[in-house]
Design brief:
mainly beta; seven-stranded mixed β-sheet; globular
Length: about 110
C-alpha cells in the first residue's frame, strides 16, 4: 500500500513563504505524476499544481508566479514552494500520486493571516 507523508504546513503572515514536502517511500516514484490539491473551508478541493514524470508542471491560475512544484525522484519526494502567500491560500493541502490509480496524503494545514 502506498503511504504519503506530508510536512511543512503551518501559520504564516501574508507575504510569507512555506515549503511543503511529500514523501512516498517504497514505490517507483519516478513512474507517477505527482501534485498538490487544496481545500479551503466551504469550498471544493482544487488542483494547485502538478508535475509529470517528464518534469512538465502546471498550476492553477491563482498561484502562477508564486508557487513552484518540484520533484526529487532519488528521494521519492515532491515539494511545493509557496511564496508571496495570501490569506486566500489558506486551506488543507493534499499531495497525491497518480498512475493508474491515485493515492493521497493525509493533508497538511496552511494558514495565512492578513
Amino acid at each position: 500500500q502506498v503511504q504519503l507523508v506530508e510536512s511543512g504546513g503551518g501559520l504564516v503572515q501574508a507575504g510569507g513563504s512555506l515549503r511543503l514536502s511529500c514523501a512516498a517511500p517504497g514505490i517507483l516514484f519516478n513512474t507517477y505524476d505527482v501534485g498538490w490539491h487544496r481545500q479551503a473551508p466551504g469550498k471544493q478541493r482544487e488542483l494547485v499544481a502538478q508535475i509529470t514524470t517528464s518534469g512538465i508542471s502546471n498550476y492553477v491560475e491563482s498561484v502562477k508566479g508564486r508557487f513552484t512544484i518540484s520533484r526529487d525522484n532519488a528521494k521519492n519526494t515532491v515539494y511545493l514552494q509557496m511564496d508571496s502567500l495570501r490569506p486566500e491560500d489558506t486551506g488543507l493541502y493534499y499531495c497525491y500520486l497518480r498512475r493508474v490509480h491515485s493515492y493521497w496524503g493525509q493533508g497538511t494545514q496552511v494558514t495565512v493571516s492578513s
